[in-house]
Amino acid sequence: MTLRPIDSNRQSPQDRIDALRDLPLEPLEYCQKWVELSPEERGYRKACVEALAEATGLSPRTIENWGKRFEKRPDHITHSLRMADTLNQIRKLVLPPDLLQK
To answer: For residue 22, how many other CB atoms are within 10 A of its CB?
Structure first.
């Protein structure tokens, strides 16, 4: 896969969306973006595993087996996380705040 740089001056909005969609998102990056605790706080790893489980549909136990920094994660997970990230951003922009509550 060839990663294309995102140059907003030369690309249409659709091209920028397509380019972003192709960029992988690592588990730690996903957690930094969507877990409300800071990495130094107690419970961060558990919250991160839970967020990854929700985003991927996998069990927390499976995600725990990826290693301390998720270095053993399957390759396809980075693309699943990018899609989940995109959906989270759309939800945040489009849905009223009360609909985001579980």
So the answer is: 14
